[in-house]
Amino acid sequence: MSIVEQTREGDVLVLTIHNPPVNAFSPGVPEGLHAGLDAAEGDEGVRSVVIIGGGRTFIAGADIKTFDLPREQAPDLRGFITRLDAFPKPTVAAIHGTALGGGLEVALACTYRVATKDAQLGLPEVKLGVLPGAGGTQRLPRVVGVPKALEMMLSGNPVKATEAQQLGLVDELVEGDLREGAVAFARAHADARPLPRISERSAQADPQVFAAAREGIKKTHRGQLSPGLIVDLAEMAVTRPFQEGWEAEARLFMQAKDSPQSRGLRHIFFAEREAGKIPGLTRDTPTTEINSAGIIGAGTMGGGIAMNFLNAGIPVTIVETAQGALDRGLAVIRKNYENTAKKGRMTVEDVEKRMALLTPTLNMEDLADADIIIEAVFENMDVKKDIFTRLDAIAKPGAILATNTSTLDVNEIAAVTGRPESVIGLHFFSPANVMRLLEIVRAEKTSDSVLATSLALAKRIKKVGVVVGVCDGFVGNRMIHRYGDEARKLVEEGAKPEDADAAMNALGLPMGPFQMSDMAGLDIGYAIRQHQAKVRGEPEPDGWLDRIVEMGRKGQKTGAGIYDYGEDRRPKPNADVQALIEAYRAEKGVQPRALNPQELTERLVYSLVNEGAQILDEGIAQRAGDIDVIYIYGYGFPPYRGGPMGYADEVGLKNVVAALEGYGQTPAPLLKRLAQEGKTFAGYDRERGQS
Ligand code: 3H9
Asked: Is 176 strand, coil or helix?
């Protein structure tokens, strides 16, 4: 079948795009559409044209895979849109699924738009670090008004067809068969003259709107290039003739597309989709239905995990050892929901509906029917082994037995059961009802079916699941431990904690290493360091940060950690802490030196990169892209930096190695090898067929 199929329905020519899975505007699509317009133009019997998507959707946008092609080889979306806009006969976009980016831009250049009720329309380019580059910035404000257009283009979020109709973006909602409805609409409007063209309309707006948008993006899109360009272009839609805005848009689109930020965001777009693919697992790998969940532990973690299931409509039985703890856990869940309802993001009925799906119990035997059971008690191997021994006796055959451990050996936990194939790690990140990352820890004997079911479950509860192997800290925490070590070293050598944090804030991380430690609780890191020293047979740790914890400063929760916290919860440096650090350096004979922001940034980020390379080499992570996804969704690494590994690629691995060596550190063998060969992590993923 041709990529664009032409069918005559009487006097209407229907052009159907067949470019699965999402009808992106790939090579071949513009040629097919031009051929369709040629046919329509040359045939007097054709009085109007319908453009429709075959399969599950209208056009989902420009083909992102072609962004790096030389301009001559990239599909010419703008050229097609210019022709479509000027076409002498009425054209109708028939939209189902999603009309996104270049897809919506094609629709906006048609004379009319009709859609199914559940279709979605949007300009999500900002999420890829670019801007609508085929007329969207000039046409959308002319249709829906500047404030709504700015909202759509800056958030990147689509609107539903019903709202689009109210906005004038869709002319008619089609009940029943879309194609039939669109053909009827096209026929009914075949004689409309002059043809209503959006490019001929004008847009007005109070100049204040643009000033407010520029202020707003300082908060919502700090440090990013494309949002500012979008506002500039929306302003041109009001102040300049269409043609001028259209030409400026082309220039600014190229500028945004060629920026490291857009490369970073596109890398993440594909990395996120790759993360769900596991070699060896096929579409036929059997999965089981998860219709009920059991959770052991109603603490912060257990409660947060339970909320994910309740939100997805999956009933949860939650187990505690004492009534008080159970009541407290339930009260926290209820309060979380009530707070959401107070903010208007949920109705009171929704709160009750979710709470009704939750069964509290003190009896572990009540988990006998659960399809999945997740243990979320504190990090102690003996306690976990005891729980899994009991679960082995209680759980029905085929139930998934999961541990939420963040550091312990899942193989060792699985080994106490008679069904290690059913055991897996599901590592949620705190607060578990908010953070999107789920590390899926594949133990030695975890079955493919349990792994595939866990991946499908992650999607269902709206998490980004990334499969990792067993090691201390898995991927995320193992790397963050190295980063924490480096951060403490920087301070030991002479940096102020606030300087290290500021360096990471400047890179776009909402929290630097010390702000993050204070939020997580300093006692947690303290306990981990104690535990690791014990395991390694090293003396008890006695760093400056350990001493701060020993002063009783445990972080935000005690109002005092590395920083002081007042009512506003903003970190303020503390003189006692500074004095303690100075005394510590003196005791160790360290002559403090000034560390510049470049050194702070490089040493912190490259500590992640170096450990990441080691993790990749060991096969604990399958792909460098997986590590990036983990850092974005679990640790707040800014997506527009491409994650730590993507960032290293952008800097150049040779430069990363030179910097590490310059700081007296040893680059991981894989990092060194790739640098010597002039390669990138992304290339390494591709070479191994992992991307
Ligand atoms: C643009 O239009 C620029 C213009 O303004 C100007 C140009 C001059 N290209 O997400 P899924 C692939 S910028 C290439 O798993 P879902 C995707 O990688 C573009 N490939 O499915 C995956 O491949 P695989 C503006 C694309 O149902 C497969 O399709 N548009 C594209 O969960 C399925 O995707 C966007 O930003 C693409 N545009 O969600 C839309 N889109 O199977 C981006 C998808 O090999 N796309 N693929 O892993 C989306 O938001 C979602 O994919 C969508 C479907 C909602 C469409």
From this structure: coil
